[in-house]
Every structure is written in structure tokens, then in C-alpha cells.
Amino acid sequence: MAQTLLGKIKILVSATLHSIVDQALQSNSLAVFDQYIRDAEENMETLRSALIDLQVTTKMLKAKYDDASNEAAKLDLQVDASLQANKAVLAKVAQTKFNNQLDIAKTYKEQFEKQSTTYATLVEAVQVLQAKVDVLHSQRDQVATLLQLLRAKNIIAHSMKDIQSIADDKTARIVEDVKTKLDTADARLEVATSRLSDQIEQEVGDASLNAQLESRRQRLGLS
After folding, report:
1. What residue segments make up the domains of the chain, in order of their start?
2. Tens of pLDDT along 119-152?
3. Taking each helix axis from N to C terminus, what angle separates 31-84 and 3-14, rounded to the nearest 10 degrees?
4. Cα–Cα 20 to 30 A to 199, which of 15, 118, 208, 215?
5. Cβ proximity of 127 and 133 under 8 Å
6. Is domain 3-209 annotated with CATH 1.10.287?
7. Which is nearest to 159 in space by CA: 141, 177, 143?
8. Kind plus residue range of the DSSP H or E element containing 59
9. Neighbours of 132 (CB within 10 A)
């Protein structure tokens, strides 16, 4: 997964719904609001495509790991059989093959587990982004109405709190409805958002680990 894409996903995931609406109010425009929705939808589509490939790769690595483990188990038995038959040379050959096969199995296991973790992270990222986009879509008309009311009264507001302090009854009702929806959604997504941000940060920082694994793959002739 390209670091640039993961960086974009981290930014989108980390943004709270309240902050997005407040940015729209600060700019007195829905452009920021709509840009987040577009970016999220585009990146979700990219993630969904990546997930298909990642799932195929994960299944392939799991199969290779299973095959390598089974082969190592056979070689393990050969070592024992050679020793029991007092065939030291054959035992050394079998032990060498066994050691190499264990190394190969370990490499596949590391890759399989890493890919599985990445897959789970990206699935959750899509779910969180979709939840945020759904809320923003549902509140877009309300926010647009708020902006129209503010423009009509020549009022400059930088946040929902600003509007609450100067709102008339009609505006106050809209603000309360939007605020309630945003509060509920942000609270519901807070734990997942925090965890995802950490997981994505780790994914971005795994470049050195990926390089090490690639070097190991080449050494084992797995590329």
C-alpha cells in the first residue's frame, strides 16, 4: 500500500465531523465540506480495489505457508528417521533442508500475518470513512441552510458554538439538530478513529520492515 494513500486515509480518518462543519462555517462555503466527501469517496473506492488484491495475496501467502509448514514437518520426521537408522550424513542433509524450510515457512508466516493485519485495518478504514460520509451527506442541507441564514444576516461564524451564541429560534433549532447528530457520530467513531490512526501510522512506518522482508525473499529465492 503506497504511503501517500495511507497518509491521505489517516488525515481523512482523523478529521472529526465537527471540525469539518466548522471549517465550512469558517470559509462561509460548503466547498470544504464537499471536498472531504469527494476525497473520502475516491479513497474508499481505491481502498476497496486494493482490498480485493490484498485478499487474494493473503490467501496465496496462507497457502504457501501451509505448504512450507507441511514440508518442514516431513523433513523433521526424516531427520529423526535418519538418526534412528544411524545414518549421520543423511541426517545432516535432512537437517539442513529442514532448517531452510523452517526459514521459508517463517517468512511466509510473517508476510501472511502482516497482510492480514493490513487487510483488517483497511476494512475498518473504509467502514469509518463511510460512516462519516453518510453523516455529512445527511447534514449537508442543514449546513447549507445555516450558511444561507448567516449570509442573509451578515453574520460571520467560525464554529457551531459561535452560531449558538447569536442564533435566533429558527437557527438555534437547526444548530441543535446538526450538533446532536455530529456529537453522536463523533462519539461513536472516536475509539475506532483513534485506533485506526495509530494502525495507519504503523503501516506508514513499516517501510523499513518491508525492505527487510523483500531482502529476505530475494535471499530465499521467493521473489
Report:
1. 3-209
2. 999 999 999 999 999 999 999 999 998 888 888 8
3. 120
4. 215
5. no
6. yes
7. 143
8. helix 31-84
9. 23
